[in-house]
C-alpha cells in the first residue's frame, strides 16, 4: 500500500468517527483507554493496527499525522487527545467530559 493511501485511510477514520482510537489489540494502555470510554458510554471506534491488513503502513501514517509514536492514539471530534495517560488525566479534570459533550455523536446517551 502506498503511503498516501495509508494516510487517507487514517485521516478518514479520524474524520468519520466522533471518537477514533488507533489501537493495538495486545496493548495494555489501549485496553485501559477503551475500558474507560466503554464505561462512559462513549460511541468510539477502535482501529486495531496489529490485526488489520496494511496496519503497519497505516500506523506509519498515524505517526506522521499525529506526531505521536505510541498507541493508543485518540481523537475526539477530529482533535488529538493523545494516549491513555492523557485520556485518564482529561477524565480526572473534567476536560474529557466537556470535549465529548461538545462533539456530535460522541455519546451514546445524553447523560454523562
Ligand atoms: N504513555 C503512553 C504509553 C503507550 C505505549 O507505550 N504504547 C506502546 C504499546 S503497549 C506502543 O505504542 N509502542 C510502540 C508501538 O507499538 O509502535 C499512553 O499512556 O498511551
Automatic annotation (TrEMBL):
Protein name stated in the entry: Glutaredoxin domain-containing protein
GO molecular function per UniProt: glutathione disulfide oxidoreductase activity; glutathione peroxidase activity; glutathione transferase activity
Keyword annotations of the record: Disulfide bond, Electron transport, Redox-active center, Transport
GO biological process, one term: cellular response to oxidative stress
Tagged with keyword tRNA processing: no
Catalytic activity annotation: 1-chloro-2,4-dinitrobenzene + glutathione = 2,4-dinitrophenyl-S-glutathione + chloride + H(+); RX + glutathione = an S-substituted glutathione + a halide anion + H(+); 2 glutathione + H2O2 = glutathione disulfide + 2 H2O
Gene Ontology CC annotations of this record: cytoplasm
Short name of one Pfam family: Glutaredoxin
SUPFAM superfamilies: Thioredoxin-like (SSF52833)
Source organism (scientific name): Drechslerella stenobrocha 248
Ranges of residues in domain Glutaredoxin: 19-81
Amino acid at each position: 500500500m502506498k503511503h498516501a493511501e495509508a494516510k487517507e485511510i487514517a485521516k478518514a477514520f479520524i474524520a468519520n468517527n466522533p471518537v477514533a482510537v488507533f489501537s493495538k489489540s495486545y496493548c495494555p494502555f489501549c485496553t485501559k483507554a477503551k475500558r474507560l470510554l466503554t464505561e462512559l458510554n462513549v460511541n468510539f471506534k477502535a482501529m486495531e493496527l496489529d490485526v488489520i491488513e496494511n496496519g503497519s503502513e497505516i500506523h506509519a501514517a498515524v505517526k506522521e499525522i499525529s506526531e505521536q509514536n505510541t498507541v493508543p492514539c485518540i481523537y475526539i471530534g477530529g482533535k488529538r487527545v493523545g494516549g491513555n495517560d492523557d485520556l485518564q488525566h482529561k477524565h480526572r479534570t473534567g476536560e474529557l467530559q466537556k470535549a465529548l459533550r461538545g462533539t456530535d455523536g460522541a455519546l451514546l446517551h445524553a447523560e454523562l
